[in-house]
Amino acid sequence: xxxxxxxxxxxxxxxxxxxxxxxxxxxxxxxxxxxxxxxxxxxxxxxxxxxxxxxxxxxxxxxxxxxxxxxxxxxxxxxxxxxxxxxxxxxxxxxxxxxxxxxxxxxxxxxxxxxxxxxxxxxxxxxxxxxxxxxxxxxxxxxxxxxxxxxxxxxxxxxxxx
Length: 162
Prior knowledge:
Blueprint: H1 7-18, E1 21-26, E2 35-44, E3 49-55, H2 59-67, E4 69-75, E5 89-99, H3 106-116, E6 129-134, E7 138-142, E8 148-151, H4 153-158
């Protein structure tokens, strides 16, 4: 397996992190069916994670509160031509923490989320929405067919910095 990120792979990683939409996978505690949903996200390098703003009404959020771990998957858009195995994709895996309003990280997480997704501001007034912070322990970049790299999560998050 390659040990260093090539410049083109770095550009592809940065492109993935500019996305705002990802697949969130959560295993059901006790062996029930897993949940997969598509969610908006915002990297928060200063907090060491990725911010999610999720409704407690959603099954994936309820499972996330129980399981406490998740995976977030990002992919380059498929233009509809060529081999889709050549598309870059990134998976971030790790524990997820709920950030209550009194948590010292709450305001920074909220700011990171709204800087990226300002249209979501009204949802912060909804009683069922909560802020979560995915703290990646593992990051895997597949930069095309046959090119997979395990990366330090901190380096991945740093690539999201403006």
